[in-house]
Amino acid sequence: MAELWELGAGDLAQLIAKRDLSPVELMRDTIARIDAVNSDVNAIVSLRDREALMGEARLAEAMPPNGWLHGIPVAIKDLVATKGLRSTSGSPLFADNVPDEDDGLARRMKAAGALVIGKTNVPQFGLGSHSTNPIFGVTRNPFDLSLTAGGSSGGAGAALATGMLSVADGSDMMGSLRNPAAWNDVYGFRPSVGLVPGEPGEKALLHRLSTHGPMARTVDDLEALLGTLSDGCHCPLNAEVRAPRIGWLADCGGAYPMEQGLLDAGAATLERVGLDLGWKIDAVSLPIPVEVIWDSWTTLRSFVVAMELGGHWRLQEERSQLNAQAIWEIERGFAMTGDAVEVALEQRRTWLAILSELFSRYDALMLPSTQIWPFPADWDWPRSIAGQDMDTYHRWMEVVVPASLAGVPALSLPAGHHADTGLPHGLQMLGPNGADAKLLALGRAWERAVGSRACHDPRRFARKG
User: Fold this and answer.
1) Which of 62, 229, 333, 448 could serve as 302's disulfide partner, Cβ 3.0–4.6 Å?
2) Cα separations (Å) of 295 from 212, 258, 269, 289, 358?
3) Neighbour-count burial of 202, counting CB atoms closer than 10 A to its CB (0-12 exposed, 13-18 middle, 19+ buried)
4) 3-state DSSP call for residue 443?
């Protein structure tokens, strides 16, 4: 029989609803699991007082359910403000920040009955897809503790993979739901931009480039949490796609350098699963240089980051506490001209038109979720891939940009493990804007073909280095 910490949120919710499981028992088991494995991976930070948590669990046990997450422990990504709980964004500037109010995402999860136990670790301000910061340190990969868990939702991914959480929120500007999902052998879903509400006062352009989304070990849990995060405003569930046509982008004709073995492993998994499911899979070439997509993205991203974080850069005492990634983005953004931003927006419109034509022929497009296997946890970022130098701190993540620039939904699917190292990898599936239910339906079929995701025990590995 499975341990409680191995169950998904939907299964736990059913047990609680039938009173076969009490929130008190679940909270006790969750704390025990965190005690057992969190020191290895460092995924959950700012863990709340245990007696307070047990008190909330006892209160939940005494009350009627108020949502599908009733009595289920969650940890919220540390880029989200949580009332009365330290919310740092991984930055020394906010090391002691304890908000007076919840962000909307935290309010919606609490309204669904979730019990917030702490936060999940992130890189500083979510920049860089490697969850390390000066406050809490690095989050390690459960499949090899010498390696990164990815980011910026790396804490969420590692917590799911090890059974400390049954479901988790994340966010994705440049792959932050997809990269850690691939490297932790779980599902991560970047929904259509606008499906999950932004926060009051949030810059309009930021919300076109970044979005919150769910992570889980099952597609059912992914879909259920999406309903909570979107405040019930997402498209109808349980969509069915018969005889889908899939466009395989691969590495876009060699435009995206790939670490040895990764592309072949992904293609082999897609071929096997597609054959089992009766999917029609065609190789697809893009009628646009990927450099155009990259130029548009990096211009808009730097402009947005500068608008969001520029105030810290302007104050010398705060600038000294920003990391190299933030400084690079801010200074580049401040140097932007209006003409440069307009060119980037026109490039984005061109890419949207190309995608529209592709989605008139294909139900979904697929390509790898990452360009490399998980890298050493003591690196800041990879400097080269397959002998090709990376000219920015985030060029090694370029494969996630086509979905991010367009704002279309993208689902990261577990795709197996390296034959020698056992490290996981993933494939991302892109759909047209608003096709969230269709992608989740395809993901559910994929899940039936590849099997369920098992929790992983990081104690099998000794920390290296």
Assistant:
1) 333
2) 24, 20, 31, 10, 21
3) middle
4) helix
Contact (Cβ atoms closer than 8 angstroms) between residue 234 and residue 219: no
Cα separation values, 81 from 42, 103, 167, 266, 380, Å: 20, 5, 19, 37, 26
| Sheet order of strands, 187-190 included | 167-172, 211-216, 187-190, 410-417, 424-430, 364-368, 245-248, 280-283
State what percent of residues in the chain have pLDDT above 90.
92
Query: 252 and 290 in contact (C-beta within 8 Å)?
Result: yes
Pairing between β-strand 187-190 and β-strand 410-417 as defined by DSSP bridges: antiparallel
Are the C-beta atoms of 307 and 333 separated by less than 8 Å? yes
**Distance in angstroms (rounded) separating the CA atoms of residues 9 and 20:** 14
Segment 375-394, tens digit of pLDDT:
999 999 999 999 999 999 99
CA proximity to 219, closest of 195, 247, 251, 187: 187
Copy the structure tokens of residue 146.
Answer: 């010498």
Closest CA to 186 of 139, 237, 149: 149
How far are the Cα atoms of 83, 177, 245, 305, 455 from residue 122, in angstroms, in the given order? 18, 12, 36, 16, 21
30 touches 117 (CB < 8 A): yes
- Beta strands 115-120 and 73-77 are parallel
Instruction: Check if the beta carbon of residue 130 is closer than 8 Å to that of residue 156.
Output: no
pLDDT range class, residue 240, cuts 50, 70, 90: confident
Residue 121 to residue 159: CA distance in whole angstroms: 10
Q: How far is CA 85 from CA 49, 78, 100, 438, in A?
A: 11, 10, 9, 37
Work out the mean pLDDT of the chain and round it to a whole number. Answer: 95
Question: What sign for the dihedral angle of Cα 335, 339, 342, 344?
Answer: negative
